[in-house]
Write a structure and sequence with these properties.
By secondary structure, the chain is an all-beta fold. The termini are far apart. It is globular. The strands form 2 sheets. Strands 1, 2, 3 and 8 form a 4-stranded antiparallel beta sheet that branches. A 4-stranded antiparallel beta sheet has the order 4-5-6-7, with no helix packed on it. The chain contains no helices and 8 strands.
């Protein structure tokens, strides 16, 4: 009856972005150069900024630790911090279902 009052889990159902808690997200990417896996943990308070088109944006340059492969990742959110899209240059996202924790 009061389902509209419940807090939804923003971004939890996206296949490439995992939400650890209400303010924290994680992604894993593989570099195209040498196949290194790099993980990023980012928060609403410190890392996600407003996007010019409305909503929010996380943009991060990537340099792999061993081979120094370069790339850039972008995660876009709507105004309720639900993931609306992901983009990568020089990288491939690793789906959350394939993560081995």
């Amino acid at each position: 009856m009061f389902g509209w009052l419940r807090r939804g889990s923003s971004g939890a159902s996206h296949p490439l972005v995992r939400q650890d808690d209400p303010g924290t997200f994680r992604v894993r990417v593989r570099t195209r150069g040498h196949g290194e896996v790099v993980e990023f943990r980012f928060t609403k308070a410190a890392h996600i900024g407003a996007d010019d088109g409305g909503g929010y944006l996380f943009r991060k340059p990537v340099i792999s630790p061993q081979h120094f492969d370069r790339g850039e990742l972008v995660v876009r959110f709507d105004d309720r911090y639900r993931v609306t899209g992901t983009e990568a240059e020089g990288l491939d996202f690793i789906p959350v279902a394939q993560w081995e924790d």
